[in-house]
Every structure is written in C-alpha cells, then in structure tokens.
C-alpha cells in the first residue's frame, strides 16, 4: 500500500518514435511479464505482455464505399469531441499517465505501454478511471491522483498542442453555412477550456458539455443529448466528430451519424464500433466528398 501522494514531475520536452508527433518521451518502454494492478489479483485487471515497441499507425482497412452522411436536410449542427479530435492530445495524456503511474509503482514500476493506454485509459472519464486503475484505493485518494495528472497534462499541453490538420478549413465551412456547433467531452472542464482557448475556438463553440457534469458520461448518450438540447437541434439534423470508442458509442446512442478520426485507433475498429465514415484528418477527401453531397442535397 502506497501512503504518500504521487509527486508531480516536471517533464522534459517529449520525442520518440512511439507517438509520431512533435511530442517525444524521455526513455524507451521496457515491459515486464503480466502483473496485476496494485492490490488486485483479479484476472480481469492483469496487464498483458506485448511487444516492446509498437506503432500507432492504423492498419489498412477497406475504405467505405458510401461517403454520404445520413443526415436529414437541412444539416443544422455539428458536434465535436475535443481530445484526439480537435487536437492530437493523446501523446501528452499517455506521457503524463506513464510517468506518474510509474512513480507510484503501478505495474511493478514498469512503464505502461501505449497498447494498455489505448485499451484501458483513452476516452474514459476520470471517475471511471479511478475504479479501473486503483480498485483498492479510496475514491478521494484516486481522484487526487487524477487531478495531479491533469495538472501535469495542462502544463505540457500549454506548450505543445496543435490543431488537427484541416480544422481551420472545416470551421470556416461551418461558419459560412451558419451551422450550430458544440464541443462535447469527457475531459475535465479546465482541460477542455484550455484546449479550446489554445486552438482559438473560444468564440467558435456555442456550447461546451462536460461528461462528468451530465447524469452519465460517454459512452452513454447523455452528453450529446445535452448538447442537442442546448442548441435546440434535432439529432436528425446533426452529426458528430469523434476519435474514441466510448465517444463513437455515445454519438450513435444519441441517434446521430459519427465521423471517426483515426489519429490513434485503427480505422477498422472505429467502423466496427459504429462510425459511418472514418477519416485521417479534416483535410481527408472522403470528408469533403460527404460534405459536398450534403451541400448538393440542400440546394436541390
């Protein structure tokens, strides 16, 4: 049992081939054999051994033959996730979790792998992560760890976040058509507000919905339904941009088509989860073909 609160670390500028971005990690990952979570012997919470280095380049998957988005005419609103959708923030989250979990002796002191991060952490809200990562800790102690990790993320993000390619072009397209817009996230409010501000989108979004402030966070539909109510728009006249499995499930459950961004997750996995269309970024020709179809439908 660890008695002291995890100490925050001042991270160096991050760079390695693990995440192909401007961020890099200070050292390579070394994996240990399968070991349980702290204080829990359940087989459900054991970390599986994986190859020492992984590439997050999504494996090739068949392209969707249908580009159109099943939205009733007219299109009135587009809703966006934030982390991994507006910006490629997952490498920063991964780094912060990896460093802080290693410091408290999680997984026997071995760094978590990116596979573990994607499968068990990415896209989840902090309340849920407290139970997943620290099943034997009391909730206030686990939440303090999460708050410290988010503070580390914000320090790193303030220096290193950049918008996903093509975001400015898409925002202009939406403004020209007078579309309503909301940001819907499981991230804590301070993180969401920081990212939106850093990307210059504070005046772009009309609504910001935080999953933990709803009755249920993603993967439940509540955050997206809350955004639709706030905008006064039917789910028949809107669609969603998402990058995570839980987010896609939430958008689909809210009755909207979801465009998945395959920055980190494989295209095939996003499609299997329910994404109508999967794109690599906002410059993707598949996205603009679908938007052109919506434009044409509106004019006819």
Q: In summary, what is this structure?
A:
The protein has helices spanning 90-103, 114-120, 126-133, 139-160, 167-176, 189-198, 222-231, 245-253, 267-273, 285-299; strands spanning 35-36, 46-47, 77-80, 180-185, 207-210, 238-242, 258-261, 277-279.
Structural account:
The radius of gyration is 19 Å and the shape is elongated. It has 300 residues and is an alpha/beta fold. The protein has helices spanning 90-103, 114-120, 126-133, 139-160, 167-176, 189-198, 222-231, 245-253, 267-273, 285-299, and strands at residues 35-36, 46-47, 77-80, 180-185, 207-210, 238-242, 258-261, 277-279. The model is unreliable at 1-67 (pLDDT under 50). The chain contains 10 helices and 8 strands. The longest helix is centred in the middle third of the chain and has 22 residues, at 139-160. Helix 9 (267-273) links the parallel strand 7 and strand 8. The strands form 2 sheets. A 6-stranded parallel beta sheet has the order 5-4-3-6-7-8, sandwiched between helices. A two-stranded antiparallel ribbon has the order 1-2.
List the helices and strands and how they pair.
Layout lengths: L34 E2 L9 E2 L29 E4 L9 H14 L10 H7 L5 H8 L5 H22 L6 H10 L3 E6 L3 H10 L8 E4 L11 H10 L6 E5 L2 H9 L4 E4 L5 H7 L3 E3 L5 H15 L1
Parallel strand pairs: 3-4, 3-6, 4-5, 6-7, 7-8
Antiparallel strand pairs: 1-2
Summarize model confidence as the mean pLDDT.
Answer: 82
Global structural class: alpha/beta
Strand count: 8
Figure out the total of helices. Answer: 10
Q: Main sheet: which strands, in order across?
A: 5-4-3-6-7-8
Low-confidence sequence ranges: 1-67
Biggest sheet architecture = 6 strands, parallel
Give the helix proportion (percent range). 25-40%
């Amino acid at each position: 049992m660890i008695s002291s609160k995890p100490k925050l670390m001042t991270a160096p500028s991050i760079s390695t081939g693990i995440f192909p971005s401007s961020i890099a990690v200070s050292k390579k990952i070394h994996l240990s054999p399968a070991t349980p979570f702290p204080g829990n012997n359940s087989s459900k919470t054991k970390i599986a051994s994986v190859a020492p280095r992984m590439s997050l380049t999504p494996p090739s998957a068949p392209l969707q033959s249908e580009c159109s988005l099943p939205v009733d005419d007219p299109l009135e609103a587009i809703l966006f996730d934030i982390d991994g959708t507006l910006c490629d923030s997952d490498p920063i989250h991964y780094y912060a979790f990896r460093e802080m979990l290693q410091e408290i002796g999680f997984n026997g002191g071995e760094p978590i792998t990116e596979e573990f991060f994607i499968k068990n952490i990415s896209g989840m809200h902090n309340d849920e992560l407290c139970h997943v990562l620290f099943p034997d800790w009391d909730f206030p102690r686990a939440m303090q760890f999460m708050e410290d990790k988010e503070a580390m993320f914000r320090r790193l993000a303030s220096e290193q976040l950049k918008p996903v390619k093509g975001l400015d072009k898409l925002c202009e397209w939406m403004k020209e058509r007078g579309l309503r817009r909301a940001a819907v996230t499981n991230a804590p409010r301070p993180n969401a507000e920081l990212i939106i501000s850093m990307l210059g989108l504070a005046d772009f979004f009309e609504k910001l919905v935080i999953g933990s402030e709803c009755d249920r966070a993603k993967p439940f539909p509540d955050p997206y339904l809350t955004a639709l109510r706030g905008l006064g728009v039917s789910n028949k006249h809107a669609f969603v941009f998402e990058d995570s499995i839980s987010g896609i499930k939430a958008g689909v459950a809210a009755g909207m088509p979801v465009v998945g961004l395959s920055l980190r997750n494989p295209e095939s996995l996003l499609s299997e989860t329910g994404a109508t269309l999967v794109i690599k970024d906002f410059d993707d020709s598949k996205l603009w073909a679908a938007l052109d179809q919506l434009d044409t439908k509106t004019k006819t």
